[in-house]
User: Fold this.
Amino acid sequence: MEQTSIAAEAPKGQTLYERALRSLPGGNSRSTLFVAPHPPYAARGDGCEIVDVDGHRVIDLQNNYTALIHGHAFGPVVQAAAAALAEGSAFGLPTSSEIELAECLAGRVGWAEQWRFANSGTEAVMMAVRAARAATGRDGLLRFANCYHGSWDAVVRRGSHGVPAAAQRDVLTMALGDGEAFVAALDEHEERLAAVLLDLMPNRAGLQPLPASFVELVREQTARRGIALVIDEVITFRLAPGGLQSLYGVEGDLIALGKMIGGGFPVGAVGGRAAFMDVFDPRRPDAVAHGGTFSANPVTMRAGLAALQAFQLADIQRINALGDRLREGLRERGWSVTGQGSLLQIGSQDPTALWWRLYEAGVLIAGNGLVCISTPMDEQVIERVLGAFERVGAAVR
Ligand SMILES: Cc1ncc(COP(=O)(O)O)c(C=O)c1O
Assistant:
């Protein structure tokens, strides 16, 4: 990759960051990317590496928060997106591409016969909960503490600045993994609960797979009481052709997807059993409202299809094994690391210091230590990553 310096375009003596501060609060558009004092700006990516505007090259273990299963500029995705774009990027009519992606996802998640597309995982979660509310005729939502489900008012941390308490009036937040408290809450609130929202390996709660017994309890209790089980696999879908839920052997009623299924383009999808998804059918007089000017646009749909077609069982198993190798190598070197398969989280006493030292040593991770493997990686890349961890040393463990 040729090196570049976009910073040179800033007025003389001004850094790109200083220029950005004038038009973007804090210098960028995503709070989740912030690393103090401010993150560098990316210039371009190719395979599993990216180069920033100062020409510094790093192995990308962050992959746009796990979305880029094939890394950057993956040939089949570039070709599929370019071909779709050449025929028109979005239409005021549906296209065959959304049928194909829906069929592909239904083939992977057998119980989710029907799908609707959106532009982010946030929207997918929101529409899944709305479908559950419409189908059950109840308003209540039970979710688990410290689990991130996007930036929709109802599911952000209680007390979040700018979110009125009223937005969470019908939301019950429970401790994750406490089966007894969960059953007691259902006993008390069963009549008003539309849905339980569950992430099987929540990133912000430490990226540990939930105990199978707890997942089975949640499924059994929700089914018995007519409460919808909404599984959020926005991050974990990459772990198996049918997502992490298929490895548990537990079926939900609705599933929210995003990130990897768009091939690197903005995407969200809600899928589920026809009994729940029917609420979106616009032929119904009481249909649930769901639009989105760019929902199911053919560029995203075709890119997503190309990404999924190149992400079959053997590919998934290969990067899951690379993830196991990285986890093992990090543990051997004294790091604390969680996760499963191609998803890992590295613990540190000082995550910001770890982030910067690794970045300087040539590896990009997420601010909270979340990392993932992409298909362009191989054993040599993992060895290079382990070498970088050795260089940053024990001081930031
Ligand atoms: C588990 C989970 N659900 C939902 C979302 C929201 O997805 P998006 O950022 O595309 O809105 C995320 C984003 O990180 C997520 O990790």
